[in-house]
Specification:
With 165 residues, the chain is of the alpha+beta class. The chain contains 3 helices and 4 strands; from the N terminus they run αββββαα.
Length: 165
């Protein structure tokens, strides 16, 4: 986060209240047989957000998460399940003078912190309903200066954890 974004983040955060969280898309698709319990998997997570301003006092952040799990059979990983979870977090501002540019750092970091647990819970629940071994989505980590994005960091962490098993 650059200095300008950090300043905006510090100004917006204490003036923002989470009002509501609503799922907008829930999808889990099994593409093939899952691996045996305990077998290593490759987990890939992608996410995107979009800020939507409804009034000077309210805004929402729409987030979409896609997680794919692949068996590590041979040279090429084979995707066996895909999860899509989308939700909107609605916020109220105590100071309506903030611009959309001011809200962007909050949307990138705090909304992900607010919505990520719902995504994790959805994946865990869907695994149980599909009768496949649980896939644990790692906790959300704010990307550092050297990290390309959160999805890359999460994919790398999961691959390392699977290698240790």
């Amino acid at each position: 986060m650059n200095q300008a974004d950090a300043r905006r983040f510090r100004e917006v955060t204490p003036n923002t209240e989470l009002v509501d969280v609503r799922p907008t898309e829930l999808n889990a698709t099994l593409h093939g047989p899952p691996p045996e319990a305990g077998a290593p998997i490759e987990l890939s997570i992608r996410s995107s957000i979009r800020l939507e301003r409804s009034s000077p006092e309210e805004f929402a952040v729409a987030a979409r998460f896609i997680a794919t799990a692949s068996r590590k059979d041979g040279d090429e990983p084979q995707e066996y399940v895909r999860f899509v979870y989308a939700a909107a977090a609605k916020y109220r501002l105590s100071d309506p003078s903030f611009t959309d540019e001011d809200l962007q750092p909050f949307a990138r970091y705090n909304s992900m912190i607010h919505l990520w647990p719902y995504f994790r819970a959805f994946v865990q629940s869907a695994c149980g309903q599909m009768n496949i071994s649980p896939i644990v989505i790692p906790v959300f980590r704010v990307p550092g200066e050297r990290s390309a994005d959160a999805a890359t960091a999460h994919s790398t962490e999961r691959e390392a954890a699977a290698a240790d098993s």
